[in-house]
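User: Please predict structures.

Assistant: First:
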Amino acid sequence: MSVQEHEVASLIRAQSLTASPQIRAGAVICSHAGEHALTWTALGLLGGLLDPGQRRPWLRATATVVGAHGLSIVLKRVVRRHRPADPRIQVLVATPSHWSFPSAHAASTTAAAVAYSGLLRARWPLCSVPVMMASRVILGVHYPSDVLSGAALGAALGRWVAPVRGVSGS
């Protein structure tokens, strides 16, 4: 079995395990919340507004989120991997392009979770990562490797550009 066949099988299995209307409705909500990194960008800007002593780090973290989203879009256009198209896969939301690798949702969500958890000095934002990643597979718009790669990209940028240790006004 090829890697592609394993990914299709994993995606079909994930969809069969999450076929309830409530789970799918939650996945759609997650999808809309992560569109174009707008929710994560708004949260970062709100953090800068509500935490004036850490405004610069919040803005840097927010720029990291936007950068992770933008970089993933550029990579999609370079890699040009088509979204899942197997007839057994249900596609449950519209997408802005035909390209899937890496997942921009996973990249921006993970960048936000990593960068914002450093500023908040709390790990709970990291809980958003597996939820967002699962939603993209449940909705049939990404292969598992798309979301894993997007998350890795977001984590790297979240740690490198807006490091957890570097939250003091620098």
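Second:
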Amino acid sequence: VLNLIYPCRCAFCKKVIPLDSLTCDECREKVKDVNTIKTFLGNSYCVSPFPYKDIYKQPVKNLKYGKNKYYAETMAYYIVASIRENYDVSMFDCVTAVPQTKKQLRKRGYNHAEQLGRNVAELLKIPYVECLLKIKENQYQHTLKRDLRQANVQGVFEIADKEIKGKNILLPLGPVISCPA
């Protein structure tokens, strides 16, 4: 009954899809081959199941702004495929997410990164741990040029769980997965 009122939608095109599907048939055919993109950033390898452009851009926007937690399931599926393709999953001690401030949570209704992280953790069968706290507001990253983004997050977060020291933590960031080098 709930599916009649709030039907599942394809994360790529928003068409109504069956309850047991992640995407519509047309989009599934377009994205069936996960082609991982790898980059080295700081002391982490970052991988992504697809580039942030064309058809692949829409599910990220839907997850962040669509107020539909179902999109996190779809994104997690593709992220996990990339992780399994590039890493030994047993190397990860836990999964975490970038936290939001209370103001951001009120505006968006939920933390899309946390929902994504919890879905990834569930699929990989490793614990989800809230490792970080966001201690002050900052500008949204998407409003900044690439060269200003790193400075924008300096001093914004602190470690919430001291037990994570020395652990390998998986951090899903939309279509990007950051892993220790």
